[in-house]
Amino acid sequence: MTTIESTVPPVPPGLRGVAVTTTGIGDVRGDEGFYHYRQYSAVDLARSRTFADVWHLVARGTLPGREAGARFAADVAARRALPDALAAALPVIAGACRDDLLAGLRTALSMLGPLRGMRPIWDAGPDRGADDALTVCAATPTVLAALHRLRAGLDPVPPRADLPAAANWLWMLTGDEPAPAHTRAVDAYLVSTLDHGFNASTFTARVVASTGADVASCVAAALGAFAGPLHGGAPDRALESLDAIDRDAGGSPERWVADRLAAGERIMGFGHAVYRGPDPRTALLREVAEQLGGPLPARAADVERRVAATLAELRPDRPLHANVEFYAGVVMAGCGIPRHMFTPTFATSRVVGWCAHVLEQAAQRRLIRPSATYVGPPAPQPVPDPS
């Protein structure tokens, strides 16, 4: 049977290069190897400001001074504790979602919304929407850390209001006072991954926000996109590549790359959908990893160099560079974060970016309702009689 295409103008697959709206939150300039939050380089912010300061920047539009930053951090810290009903439900959620903590987080946020009285954002107004966004972002690390510990048969560690975001995250995971070097490393990582243009999960959050839904629903939808292995689920896989080189290729990155390419597989930790040259986050996190010390950063740097050289030799028309996931795993492993918590750690940062986009989209008060190009059988045709 012949097919017919609709008259809707075609668009690039995956909406590559299509601007779907405007934003004042930040941008990724892939050809330049540069990205920014508001008017500041994201890498510069990661090197010089705290996660709470940058959270204030994307959520409220300005970098805070010392006193304003302290007030904002205290407001966030006061929202970390969970409602009693949600805390009581976490053991059941952990049991049902023990191998998928992001699914557990989605379930928990679906409870948090009504427990905190979150209403559709168009009805609630911008002030209430901003308040709900802070609550969701502050509660997310508490939920994920609790699910992690319950999964291991341990009691959750309550959040501490006296600790900044990175230190509190490490505290809730381990119950131990975090080392300052680990706190600094995780803080830099959280800042560097807070937002990154109109990636799949951010776009998903904005689509749901355009319907006027409550903040928790928008973030739960974003988490569904984020959970995919081509998006947020990559940091642990990239570190697994280092293991695979030793296990499957006798320690030879060159052989491992050649085998993967021959099998038509992706090289996890290399290449990016936007950057044509080096990922600017890679150099930052490489520095952070080297500051932590130990054998893993040196091993990763050697593998990065040799894999990049092999890819350039075997695929000279399509250069691939190490992306953020490659060194993200190295940094988190160096701070004692278990591999299954790499992507959840990423989520504790990116939720802040999602919420900034949710509020910005809601303020536009316009439903996102694109069209598709129809390529099925021509219509209308007679409906056949049943026989």
Automatic annotation (TrEMBL):
Pathway(s) of this molecule: Carbohydrate metabolism; tricarboxylic acid cycle
UniProt entry tagged with the keyword ATP-binding: no
Catalysed transformations (reactions): oxaloacetate + acetyl-CoA + H2O = citrate + CoA + H(+)
UniProt name for this protein: Citrate synthase
Record bears the keyword Transferase: yes
PROSITE patterns with a match to the protein in the record: CITRATE_SYNTHASE
Organism in which the protein naturally occurs: Pseudonocardia nematodicida
Lineage: Bacteria, Bacillati, Actinomycetota, Actinomycetes, Pseudonocardiales
This protein's UniProt keywords: Transferase
One Pfam family it belongs to: Citrate_synt
Family: Belongs to the citrate synthase family.
InterPro entries, alphabetized: Citrate_synth-like_lrg_a-sub, Citrate_synth-like_sm_a-sub, Citrate_synthase, Citrate_synthase_AS, Citrate_synthase_bac-typ, Citrate_synthase_sf
SUPFAM superfamilies cross-referenced by the UniProt entry: Citrate synthase
